[in-house]
Amino acid sequence: MSPDSFSSSLKFDQSELAIDAARRDQGLVLTSPRLVEEDVQLGFLVPVFESVLKTGKGYYLVQAKDVVLGEAAQLLRRWL
Fold first, then answer.
1. Which residues are registered as beta bridge partners of 64?
2. What 3-state DSSP class applies to 2?
């Protein structure tokens, strides 16, 4: 699978639209932890990675709680 195969994927210019898509089981979102903190606390979204690097800055890669990652999402996760 190459990055060229992602051309048919959904892309968003606004973080909130991407977060809402993840809430609706439509993929992953790489975003600021502050923007998804409540969703993570309530269990609507879950961090894709178990470990957290605390730098004071950063992003979470999250997905809907009960979603099994597809091949493209797994590739992105491994790449990150």
1. 45
2. coil
Q: Which residue has the tokens 């994927």?
A: 9
Structure tokens at 80: 């990150």
Tokens of 49: 């990675």
Q: Rounded to whole angstroms, how far apart are CA atoms 49 and 58?
A: 13
What are φ and ψ of residue 61, in 5° steps? -105, 115
pLDDT tens, N- to C-terminus, the chain (80 residues): 455 555 556 665 688 888 999 999 998 888 888 889 999 999 999 998 877 667 776 667 788 888 888 888 888 888 87
Query: What residue spans define the domains of the chain?
Result: 11-79
Report yes or no: 46 and 28 within 8 Å, Cβ to Cβ: no
